[in-house]
């Protein structure tokens, strides 16, 4: 009795056959030595097939390990039982074109995964993390809940090849800031991680869209764009989506209405230099600024400005309480993914290349409301900003440029343009 078997589905005949080996290595060796195999098996003897004829069968996935992404191995006994129960008609498809990979299975990565799974964004979710045991544990844990999910296919590990053929890669890997620390202090450390990680993703998914979540989100989106070589519409960051939802929730509380019915934007930077667009905040078309012309100013007796202070302090406040933030961002990233995969053309304030907009004349990635569809960023909204809002946006762009220019992109296949390398 051989320990391992390879079940092979012949593309054209749709018939199953198998070869046996004492172990998986022996089977691999046999396959790589012979580009053609003579297969002796019940129904059809000594037929020749080429490796390209071989297509995987993918049910009972938990037990499989793939080889060349094409052939599946599993204990002989299981194969025998399986072939007794199932007449295979067609190979099961591994990737139906909406594969989502989440890189970084930390607090944010797992919250994103749960939100993606809970809302049925993809039929194929992959989790990758440098810390192999942790990600394997997370994947096993999630798989055990898969009978309650709309689409139960979840896999992952510490090997980037698992991301092959991703339509969307969500990057949550990286260090997080401490409570009270600016996200911008993480720029070089997390950029070094992106320089290693992004080329791996592109190697396996050259057509992918990259959605950056790690901090400082806007600056890392710029780094990912540089390092990936992707067109700018395919590289975006979560931007001020979280800041904007925090803002809307706080306004909604004041009015006791649903935050979905509060129309308000924060743009400019995910962080301490974010810009609330008071000039356009409205509920059912009723602009708050028309009713309180001082809204958002220091001399406003109603002190609406405190809401923005609360938005800026929100991450720190949650970190003081539980050490990290993850659910708010996870849910919004899943919503952005849904707009991209479902071509929903929903608008989110994401980090995009602002060159040529609002008087910005450099490749600076910062959050602006943009339409997200299956191409990634389809349009950027031309906002009617007040003079103060425009000036703040230009100041923030100048600050982000300083940070971008300070980042040394080492080891990537791009010319570093940091101040040090230029001089
Ligand atoms: N954009 C936003 O709105 C938000 C961004 N964040 C940011 O998200 C990032 C992640 O935060 P957490 O999940 O809380 O951190 P975490 O420490 O819980 O998880 C980070 C994960 O990244 C993994 N990792 C590190 N280097 C890697 C590499 N080269 N390849 C694969 N995996 C790698 C680590 O093993 C770890 O599991 C931080 O930068 C944080 O500041 C957090 C909340 C909101
Ligand atoms: C950590 C972070 O960026 C946030 O919660 O806003």
Automatic annotation (TrEMBL):
EC number: 1.1.1.27
Gene3D superfamilies attached to this UniProt entry: Lactate dehydrogenase/glycoside hydrolase, family 4, C-terminal, NAD(P)-binding Rossmann-like Domain
Keywords: NAD, Oxidoreductase
Functional pathway: Fermentation; pyruvate fermentation to lactate; (S)-lactate from pyruvate: step 1/1
A molecular function (GO) term: L-lactate dehydrogenase (NAD+) activity
This protein's record includes keyword NAD: yes
Domain of life of the organism encoding this protein: Eukaryota
Domain (Lactate/malate dehydrogenase N-terminal) ranges: 99-237
Location of the Lactate/malate dehydrogenase C-terminal domain: 240-402
NCBIfam families per UniProt: L-LDH-NAD (TIGR01771)
Family: Belongs to the LDH/MDH superfamily. LDH family.
The name this protein goes by in its record: L-lactate dehydrogenase
Annotated source species: Cryptolaemus montrouzieri
């Amino acid at each position: 009795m051989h320990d391992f078997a390879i079940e092979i589905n012949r593309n054209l005949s749709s018939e199953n056959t198998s070869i046996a080996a004492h172990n998986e290595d022996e089977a691999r060796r046999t396959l790589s030595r012979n580009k053609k195999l003579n297969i002796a098996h019940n129904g059809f003897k000594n037929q020749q097939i080429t490796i390209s004829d071989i297509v995987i069968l993918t049910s009972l996935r938990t037990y499989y390990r793939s080889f060349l992404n094409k052939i599946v191995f599993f204990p002989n006994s299981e194969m025998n039982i399986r072939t007794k129960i199932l007449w295979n008609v067609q190979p099961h498809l591994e990737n139906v074109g909406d594969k989502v990979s989440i890189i970084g299975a930390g607090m944010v990565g797992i919250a994103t995964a749960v939100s993606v799974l809970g809302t049925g964004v993809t039929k194929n979710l992959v989790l990758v993390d440098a810390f192999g045991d942790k990600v394997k544990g997370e994947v096993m844990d999630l798989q055990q809940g898969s009978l309650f999910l709309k689409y139960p296919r979840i896999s992952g590990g510490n090997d980037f090849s698992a991301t092959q053929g991703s339509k969307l890669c969500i990057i949550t890997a990286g260090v997080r800031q401490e409570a009270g620390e600016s996200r911008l202090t993480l720029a070089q450390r997390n950029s070094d991680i992106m320089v290693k990680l992004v080329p791996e993703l592109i190697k396996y998914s050259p057509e992918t869209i990259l959605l950056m979540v790690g901090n400082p989100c806007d600056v890392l989106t710029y780094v990912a764009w540089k390092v990936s070589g992707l067109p700018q519409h395919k590289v975006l960051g979560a931007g001020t989506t979280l800041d904007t939802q925090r803002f809307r929730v706080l306004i909604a509380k004041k009015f006791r209405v649903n935050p979905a019915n509060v129309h308000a934007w924060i743009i400019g930077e995910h962080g301490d230099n974010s810009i609330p667009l008071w000039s356009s905040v409205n509920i059912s078309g009723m602009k708050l600024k028309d009713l309180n012309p001082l809204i958002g100013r220091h001399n406003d007796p109603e002190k609406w400005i405190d809401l923005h202070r609360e938005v800026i302090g929100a991450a720190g406040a949650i970190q003081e309480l539980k050490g990290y933030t993850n659910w708010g961002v996870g849910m919004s990233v899943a919503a952005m993914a849904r707009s991209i995969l479902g071509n929903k053309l929903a608008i989110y304030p994401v980090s995009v290349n602002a060159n040529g907009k609002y008087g910005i004349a450099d490749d600076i990635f910062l959050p602006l409301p943009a339409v997200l569809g299956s191409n990634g960023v389809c349009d950027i909204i031309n906002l009617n900003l007040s003079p103060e809002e425009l000036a703040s946006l230009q100041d923030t762009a100048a600050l982000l440029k300083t940070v971008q220019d300070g980042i040394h992109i080492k080891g990537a296949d791009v010319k570093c343009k940091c101040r040090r390398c230029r001089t």
